[in-house]
Amino acid sequence: MGNSMSSDSNIIKQIYINIRKDLTIEVRRGYEYLSSLAFIIASSLVISHIITKFLRVELFIPSLWIIIVFLGIFTTYSSFVREVDKKTIYGVRLLPIPAPIIFLSKSLYTYILVFTQSIVYLGFQTLFTMSTLKLSMDIVYTLIIFSLNISIIASFTSALVMYSEGRSFLIPMLIFIFSLPIIPLAVAISDPEIPAGPFDLPLLAMETFTLFITFTILSEYLLET
Tens digits of per-residue pLDDT, 81-97? Predict the structure, then answer.
């Protein structure tokens, strides 16, 4: 039992070290984060203009889901793809932790980036539309789960195409394909004009969990071949 607890502690510590390393690199490569920030500001300006000019306040939250998908595309390049470009992928494979744990640490790192940038988008959107942001608990839960879902998709896509020469084309295509089943669910939960079922939020959580288990199993093959 003591050995098991020690092993679990080492795994958690290694996950923390991996996430901290990736975040440190992200901070040092500030131009990549600035590019995402520029996209967020530009998107906020365009969508806020549509909202204020056409009085389409109902687009405020649904637009967030599309923005998160694009953020997932951007962060894909800072996951396994970056490890390949920097020739550090072999060091990652030699870490004393299983491949699924490596995938988990990359997914959590991506989640931190996607979730924080989505909050920044909401802030700019609120500022540009000069409106008060009202988030129900269902929308908050949807934001948390949807961001996690896209982060898992982005990490898996990064592992899937990290050696591909056509990844600039494949990454956006794969992320849009993988995210298609959950976008309507997120929109239904957040748009008051669309009748949402009582099981939409649990269904979104279940799809995210299923996706995580499936991609974690597949990542073991991708990272060990």
Answer: 888 888 888 777 777 78
Residue 173 tokens, joined: 């295509």
**Tally of residues, the chain:** 225
Most confident of 35-39, 81-85, 111-115, 181-185: 111-115
Query: What domain range includes position 66?
Result: 2-224
CA distances 125 to 11, 69, 98, 130, 157, Å, are 39, 17, 41, 8, 29
DSSP state letter for 171 = H
Cα–Cα distance for residue pair 139/133, rounded to 1 Å? 12
User: How many structural domains compose the chain?
Assistant: 1
- With vertex at residue 178, the alpha carbon angle to CA 180 and CA 45, rounded to the nearest 5 degrees, is 60
**The two structure tokens encoding residue 101:** 């744990």
* CA 24 – CA 5 distance, rounded (Å): 28
The count of other CB atoms within 10 Å of the CB of residue 113 is 24
Most confident of 59-63, 95-99, 111-115, 159-163: 111-115
